[in-house]
Design brief:
This protein folds into 2 domains: 5-134, translation initiation factor eif-2b, domain 1 (Four Helix Bundle (Hemerythrin (Met), subunit A)); 137-340, 3-Layer(aba) Sandwich (Rossmann fold). It starts with a strand and ends with a helix. It is an alpha/beta fold. It is built from 11 helices and 16 strands. It is 40% helix and 17% strand. The chain is globular. The strands form 4 sheets. A 7-stranded mixed beta sheet has the order 6-5-4-7-10-15-16. It has a 4-stranded mixed beta sheet with strand order 11-8-9-14, with helices on one face. It binds 5-S-methyl-1-O-phosphono-5-thio-D-ribulose.
Length: 344
Amino acid sequence: MWPAIQWENNKVILIDQRKLPAQEIYVECTDYHHVAEAIEHMIIRGAPAIGVAAAYGVALGIRNIDEKADMDEAFDKIISRLAETRPTARNLFWALERMKKTYENSRGLDLLRLKQRILEEAQLIEYEDIQTNKKIGAWGKALIKDGQSILTHCNAGALATAGYGTALGVIRAAFEEGKKIQVYADETRPFLQGARLTCWELAKENIPVILITDNMAGYFMQKKMISLVITGADRIARNGDTANKIGTYSVAVLAKENSIPFYVAAPCNTIDFNLAHGDKIPIEERDPREVREIGGKCFTLPDIEVRNPAFDVTPARYISAILTENGIARPPFEESLANCKRED
Ligand code: MRU
């Protein structure tokens, strides 16, 4: 597999997701500023992958600290820079909190050993993410029957994680088991994660995929050509309200109207237990050019006013189940998500 992120020779290597599928280009980050910029510019994206990248960003940052620096001050600067990259994905803040805890628990180590310890934690976060996704897949595949067709939105695959994927991990697991499935991928305007990334990923493994534009989802549901929907998540509130790529809410409403199950696949570290409801989830607003342009070419008035929220929140009542590494949480989510977390 083509990992979205790798640590190699003291560098963070990222596949440039802005260039896929036309070009497979790798970007090397040698300091934490590079990693922060790579997250902001979507060279790497997807909530779990952003978390792993940030953890490696911390490892790079601390690697480059010199002995004379005020360690605590320098460490906080690294964490703050990485934390300001993208506001919505809970996994980013979870990973940074975990790296901070590791740093605090490593007081007393000499600088060389501390740098090693921080790197090991980032590597552990990467390793655990892949294992977690495989567990999500193992739980989730039972929900997919032979012959079914699955609609997905955005890219919640290997590219959005350390490997295997969440929503696409469930699809992979069902496919690996020999189930005949048909995936429908929403193109996912404006960044086209579905058209560019999900199609690329699935096609590489010969998993049957049909690309549709976002506004076609209702048509195919009405025609009974979609058996279920699975998406990933960027942040899940305690009650199950789920932030995911813009357009997910519309898909969930359409699924309910058409009596189609709507599943969210995500690791427990996407759940924000501090938030009672989804209305407090911070929604990133991105550059208007992403809406005005496709492939760098403006197709509207160059100065037309634009809104570009990158995520929306699907209320829990539209969600049939949330698939985690610790099992399948069903409504009421307040209780079932808390149980999943307890098993962590
Ligand atoms: O803006 P992006 O591409 O980072 O948004 C990604 C998504 O919305 C994914 O569905 C989500 O992060 C889950 S990825 C396993």
